[in-house]
Amino acid sequence: MTVVALMGATTLFAQTDVVATFQQGLGNAKSGNYTEAIAQFQEVIDASYDIDEPDANQQKAIVGSKKFMVTCYNKMGVAAINAKEYNTAIEHFTNAANYAELYDDIAAMNKNKSLIGQVYQVQGADAFNSEDYATAIAVFSKGYEADPRNTDMALNLAESYFRSNMYQDGMRICTAISALNADKFAEAIAEAQAKMDMYTNNEVAKLQMANDYDGIITMAEQLDDAAMAHKITMQAYYGKKEFGKMVELSEAALAAQTTDEGRSDVYYLLGVAYNEMEQFDKAISAMKNVTAGANVANAQAVITALTPAE
What we know:
The protein is mainly alpha-helical. It is built from 16 helices and no strands. The protein has a domain at about 210-310: Tetratricopeptide repeat domain (Serine Threonine Protein Phosphatase 5, Tetratricopeptide repeat). Mean pLDDT is about 90; it is low at about 1-15.
């Protein structure tokens, strides 16, 4: 009898009190009593499962409770940021994002994940500026997981990896940045690609000084960026003086390039290979396709040197 009575009381609440409880929650939310408001919104949501066919007012209360549950956690997160209580802020924004996802509010979920990323960005900045890259990586990684589209933080994470001799991890982050929408993230993509070029050249130079061309090839195989991987591999085979292998790889290398500069770099390497093989007509033909990037002047010099005087 007691169980039946309790069930009856729950059903009665569900049918009559969800609207009043929602209104109480709104009042507390407007007054900044977010914890109490959250409890009331949760009470409405729990009761909604016992209502088979909610009327218009009940439906409004249920939908509103889900929306304002997210809003309250968000407001608590903002208050924690203002108080510089960053861990608490992350906790509140995480709750907001999780509830938003549960209630299919994708825009609110993304907004709160972005805020999580921003908090981690602030937390990691001191470590990064102090060159404590291990700590910076630990913090920025959490922020990047929450919001990989926060490119300022992502670039700092990549730089932290590079400066910690974690080349492949830095390349992974930069490659992901490069895959973002080019219209919206053009500046970040350009910076990511500049980092990739610089740190890759550094890694290649180290291995070249050790005459470890097989090490360069192995490094290239681990890269997610196919365009760069193919160019590095061709450079390694040049170091090994396997010019025929360079020619063999050139078609795939050209196909992998996405910019005029990339294609020109590959054509330059192809021309160099043909020149070493004393196939001068093919060398000239390849060099004529070097139209962009840093090797244009060198390619023209090779063409001039190989062209018979009239």
